[in-house]
Design brief:
- This protein is α+β, with helices and mostly antiparallel strands and 140 residues long.
- It has a single domain, classed as Ubiquitin Conjugating Enzyme (Roll).
- It has two helices and six strands; from the N terminus they run αββββββα.
Amino acid sequence: MKANKGDAPSNSIDQIVAMQANYPSFTYSRLKGKEVEFRGKLQAREDFPIYEVSILYSPLHPPQVRVISPALVENPPHIYRKERTLCLYRPDNYEWTNQEIITTNILPWTGAWIYFYEIWLRTGVWYGPEAAHDNIKKTA
């Protein structure tokens, strides 16, 4: 079964197929039950570093996105501190369901997060969309 942007994935296999179709450089490095870890590289802009990211997918939980390399600075904005995962959206404004495909929102939002992080490193200001976080230190 081939998953397309508008299809509702019924399981991890559909996520794998969608990832291979839309981001062929990403591979899945672990398949345990219905849990899949995708790994791949993203570059937000030609003059920015290439980031290796990990996306942990489980039908029971929202995807968890982590930067593998390069190492992030200490206490970057828009990170869930405990899990060290990227804050890509405010759960009050968007609710992930297991009917969605990672390549539709999560990967583009990850690329945007990397872009705004790189700008933040240079300017100290997070220019991307944001909402107040209880556990995240905001910047100017």
